[in-house]
Design goal:
With 187 residues, the chain is an all-beta fold. It is built from no helices and 17 strands. Strand 2 and strand 3 form a beta hairpin. The chain is globular and about 45 Å long.
């Protein structure tokens, strides 16, 4: 893979596993893997109504609200208020989860990974950052606002465009706004 630029405009909306909404996959490993066998998956979800989340046995999730007022999540019987944009929130994907919108539609950036095969570190960053994939792993960055540039390659990223790489150092990301950084490692 080395380095790929993944444009938001090229993504196709598909129904959620439970049929309750749509998602746009940014990247997954293995590429094109069905929902029941991926090692990791990163996607954007448009949520216009509350309801149950799909269950993903053996999968941990990180949900980051990137647009909208947020959600009140009930995860395994516990309330989790996710009402701050750009704040990653971790929870097990195999616990019964239900979401209620706090103030209208939201867009969530979701990172899902099989806990027995993969670890994921998710951070929201701003400024200058050297992208670095761990040995045998992957680094993925999603521009959350327009104006990001991958230096040395003169690649401009608009809102929700992404870069994904498995090389040790695919370059330096410079952002004028925020970006979400995901570092994925095999266990």
């Amino acid at each position: 893979m080395t380095l790929r630029v993944l444009r938001a405009a090229d993504r196709t909306a598909v129904s959620w596993k439970n049929g309750g909404g749509v998602t746009r996959e940014i990247a997954a490993s293995p590429e094109g893997a069905p929902l029941d066998v991926f090692d990791w998956r990163v996607s954007l979800a448009d949520v216009s109504a509350g309801g149950p989340f799909s269950s993903f046995p053996g999968v941990d999730r990180t949900l980051t609200v990137v647009d909208g007022a947020g959600m009140d999540l009930m995860v395994g019987g516990e309330h989790h208020i996710v009402d701050e944009q750009y704040w990653p929130h971790d929870f097990p994907g195999d616990l019964e989860t239900d979401g209620r919108l706090l103030g209208g539609p939201v867009v969530n950036l979701n990172v899902m990974y099989r806990r027995e095969r993969t670890t994921a570190e998710v951070a929201v960053v701003r400024g200058t950052l050297r992208l670095s994939a761990p040995p045998g792993g992957t680094v993925l960055a999603v521009a959350l606002e327009d104006g990001a540039v991958l230096d040395g390659r003169d690649i401009a990223l608009d809102r929700y465009d992404a870069v994904v790489a498995d090389s040790a150092s695919p370059g330096v990301l410079r952002t004028q706004g925020w970006a979400l950084l995901v570092t994925l490692s095999a266990r």
